[in-house]
Amino acid sequence: MSHRVVASIDRRALAHNLDIARRHAPQSKVLAVIKADAYGHGLLACAEALRAADILGVTDIEEAERLRAHGIHKDILVMQGLIDKSDVRRVAKEGFQLVIHRVEDLALLETELSRVHLSHKLTFWLKLDTGMGRLGITAAEVQRLHLALRRQKWTEEVILMTHLANAGMPQSPLNTTQVLNFARSCQALAEFTPQTSIAASAALLALDVQGDFVRPGIMLYGSSPFAWKDVERRREKFGLHNVMTLQARIISIQQHNTGDNIGYNSQFICPQPMRIGIVSIGYADGYPSHTPNGCPVLVGTQRTVTTGRVSMDMLAIDLTHCVDAQPGDMVTLWGEQLSIDEVAAHTGVISYQLSSGVSPRVPRTYR
Ligand SMILES: Cc1ncc(COP(=O)(O)O)c(C=O)c1O
What we know:
Layout: E1 5-9, H1 11-24, E2 29-33, H2 35-39, H3 43-49, E3 55-58, H4 61-69, E4 75-78, H5 86-94, E5 97-100, H6 105-113, E6 122-128, H7 139-151, E7 155-162, H8 173-188, E8 196-197, H9 201-206, E9 213-214, E10 244-256, E11 261-262, E12 268-269, E13 274-279, E14 296-299, E15 302-305, E16 315-318, E17 330-334, H10 340-347, H11 351-356, E18 364-366
Parallel strand pairs: 1-18, 2-3, 2-9, 3-4, 4-5, 5-6, 6-7, 7-8
Antiparallel strand pairs: 1-10, 10-13, 10-17, 11-12, 13-16, 14-15, 14-17
Helix pairs in contact: 5-6
Pyridoxal-5'-phosphate (PLP) is lined by residues 33, 79, 163, 200-202, 215-219, 225.
């Protein structure tokens, strides 16, 4: 099929990257984070490709229900917790696991669960804020809430979790602070031997803090959670395989003279005669609008760069040295030979944003 723009997803690479996660945490169960439509890769296809995971993590009930409706009967964790009281019934109906990150959630659960017939008990992930400053209950509240949840007849298990703010910067002292804070809270509940979860991709790869469950996301998609300039921690150093290849078609090629303007706001003026290709991808497809001149792309296997402001449906590239390039050829915006992490570094956004920002109008194909 001749696409204008396409994101092709390599399912075997996903399964391979899951294996890498397991190898880094052989004692832990793996919660594969497939929230945000599997970081833009497609929720259902990725859930299937990651069937070897122990449990799947999604953003909200809608994503969890999509998985169930698709016949995925694996454990599913709703990571953002309750948004609305009606969520409680939906969680109960499908037996989803649920993050509890507010003290008020307990009363909501008590009220709503007293009104439904439960065919199975529920597992909760009690989220502690150990220093991230985002979601979670404080150390002062954890014991009370843990006991109150455990006491309920509808509770199967309460897992303790936290999330590290700076795991992508392994030397940050905040990592040690958070790990210690978490350990202290777990210690206070040691008599219940609660299962624990602390590590997402970065902590899994660079810190020795796995817990009973690890929660990798970005590494499953073949991207390193560390900065591009951290050359020892690029994806290939961990053996991660590329998952998404984003490609778009050259729709026009023009010869330009020195001083010619290319695109909006004169972001690029030709410094010499140049052959400029117009590629059919723009910010409405998810390619960042503020990308500077000089962002790498591949024409075949040849590297070249963007020239000028990214438009809604188009961007311009330098084809001066790509003498064989023709209208109709596909250009790779990121993929195996051009890491999404390198493109992220050039565009000034994180790879998470690049892949999850590929817009719904871009077809995903799977191999
Ligand atoms: C609570 C939690 N766990 C795990 C992850 C996965 O993180 P990563 O994609 O860095 O592996 C996220 C991602 O935002 C998260 O919020």
